[in-house]
């Protein structure tokens, strides 16, 4: 049983979470108290003053300025406290520590990509070291998304025409859901990523292997991993079913009808072009919604994906 | 004189369908609005049930993600633009307001009829939009998604644009009617509180709705002519759209709730047989809400990247706008003190309101507190808060109002027994549907999700079961209300023993409302000085 998990709130996994939760819990108990007060009085009045027999004239209780002022001033003081508390924590949440490590975040339909200072690109999985503040410089390639990690209590919209900034520091290793919180279309609910917090040693190890990912693997085997980790799987099936995009099965080596008319042979070059410049030749019957992976995939990764797609079409392979 | 079901009344005089469709009688227009609005409620409710059914279990069960996105958008758009905005003012307000101030009709009967026809035109455009492919943007039409999606955004936003005019027409009409047509003796502070609430609402309708109209027109131009106001691909700013949109849509939340608060005051006073405690505070709190409500739109945008200073100001103003609502709650509560409370169906809804709206209001404080809102924004916590205010507030009051004025509208009583059963089912089902959403929202479940991670499964399942209980309540309600047309006992002029003017005329009222000009000599809820004649008869 996780001791930081309550009925209402998810586990606390960032340095700001305890602050947010303290105010949340204060509000919760204050609300419970007010609700209990109002409901208790309602029940008492309703039972005690229920109508018995014919109506009579009720004593005149019209107005009492002192009472009115009491229930104006007391809530005013309370919300005043809550305002200041909420604002101070909000400012703390918005001031990024100086020694933060910066990671560039990009939102697009429908995945997240993270670019590390050394040029490493991760899709949908953000790996960070524990105990180090991380500054996220975020922008969107298309519509508005929102970067939301419930366990960190942070959320910030990701906009197409400007940078927004969020930061967090996760004290302990662990895995956390990353949601898109601003509605962004068909696969909005599938735009789920993960923040993986590693201990300092594990992080250093990971960084080293990440740079050489795929080494010693067969290209189609590595491609199968990239198919999932680079989120191709969200829109392109490997079982023949049409999704947001065409399936990878049964098309290679055949003519593909294009949306703007004509057809093209699905070969290695068409796959490569469709990954790097997806709007160039959109297959008929599909929306032109795929974002470009230019800059997000290295040359050997594109090679691996091409090999993987070919491996799904053994009879048509060349 | 207590005449039961007069032979000639506004329902049967004159006859013929043309006499309804082209009527200038505010009561008939109110009834036509009521019929149209209840149909919209049915349609929006069906979409809601489909959404909840899909969410019963994680994974794709019934439909594709595209279809789901259209379903929740249609639920929101229909409930907001076709149902809840016109619900109380245009239906119950139209019927009751002139009667309550002792007037023959509203100030501009033709404008009133035009408002209904404009509403019908807007509805037809909205239905066309549904058949032309529907919309998948959410009812907020956020850019740049709404400028890029291939769905029928233009027709749906145009429908909302047209519907806005029907709302403005009603607002203008009510403002002038309240100013000019009050019966002799009815000073401002002798007006029933429902009239005060409608007056405050009308001010917002007239001042805020044009901004929405302009915003939606700009969105349509953007799609048609690529003018580049909102879409960054054309050099625009998508957050500007959010500012424009909420500049209307936050005050619009008060267009939705204020009339409900007005009904609450009538119900609590009537069924507790007490004058409303702190009448002036309740009346002025409506006006205060209407005015401060214009200055809080930025609290929808704390995570949007707007400046921290702006967020701070909007947070502070948001807390201020909560105070008048709290004042009302405490005043209704105090009105119950030493009352003589009875529990007919309308009063049950008033008591539900006291419970559910309080929860809606208190959870609003969570969302006003900046740092907590960052976590809760765009989660099911917001969905639950919104439904506790809109459904737990406005709809509960609307249902109370329908049951309260039903005998006056149709001259018949519905089954009190089934009325209470349905009221309990609606209350239990409502809380069953929406309370689990607070929990999963705080745990991080984002809204507008077609699919979800399994850890939120229990709460989603509970919420869906709650929606079925609520549906059962509504089905029973529809049955006994319709049955009352044939089987209902004659209501008499004043079945509740209420003191406001609409209860002094016959049920249903004659086409001209009152046989002689009423003169007001007492306050609308002066139960401590006067007891209505029918009460002494010992109903």
Structural features, described:
With 318 residues, chain A is of the alpha+beta class. Chain A has helices at residues 17-48, 65-94, 200-211, 219-229, 268-276, 299-311; strands at residues 101-108, 111-115, 121-123, 125-129, 134-140, 145-149, 154-158, 164-168, 174-180, 193-198, 255-257, 263-265. A five-stranded mixed beta sheet of chain A has the order 3-2-1-5-8, with no helix packed on it. In chain A, β2 and β3 (121-123) form a beta hairpin. In chain A, α1 (17-48) runs antiparallel to α2 (65-94) and α4 crosses α6 (299-311). The longest helix of chain A has 32 residues, at 17-48. Chain A is elongated and about 90 Å long. Chain B is an all-alpha fold and 539 residues long. Chain B has helices at 17-21, 26-54, 65-100, 109-131, 145-148, 153-180, 193-225, 238-272, 279-292, 308-336, 345-368, 370-376, 380-410, 416-442, 457-487, 533-536. The longest helix of chain B has 36 residues, at 65-100. In chain B, 63% of the residues are buried. The interface between A and B is large, with 85 and 95 residues.
> What oligomeric state do the depicted chains represent?
heterodimer
Q: N-to-C SSE series of chain A?
A: HHEEEEEEEEEEHHEEHH
Averaging pLDDT over every residue of chain A, what do you get? 88
Give the CA-CA distance, first to last residue of chain B. 16 Å
* Averaged pLDDT of chain B: 93
CA gyration radius of chain B, whole angstroms:
23 Å
The proportion of strand residues of chain A reads 15-25%
Can you summarize the main beta sheet of chain A?
Answer: 5 strands, mixed
Main attributes?
heterodimer, A: alpha+beta, five-stranded mixed beta sheet, 34% helix, B: 539 residues, 0% strand, globular
Secondary structure blueprint with pairings:
The complex is a heterodimer of chains A (318) and B (539).
Chain A: H1 17-48, H2 65-94, E1 101-108, E2 111-115, E3 121-123, E4 125-129, E5 134-140, E6 145-149, E7 154-158, E8 164-168, E9 174-180, E10 193-198, H3 200-211, H4 219-229, E11 255-257, E12 263-265, H5 268-276, H6 299-311
Parallel strand pairs in A: 1-5, 4-10
Antiparallel strand pairs in A: 1-2, 2-3, 5-8, 6-7, 6-9, 9-10, 11-12
Helix pairs in contact in A: 1-2, 4-6
Chain B: H1 17-21, H2 26-54, H3 65-100, H4 109-131, H5 145-148, H6 153-180, H7 193-225, H8 238-272, H9 279-292, H10 308-336, H11 345-368, H12 370-376, H13 380-410, H14 416-442, H15 457-487, H16 533-536
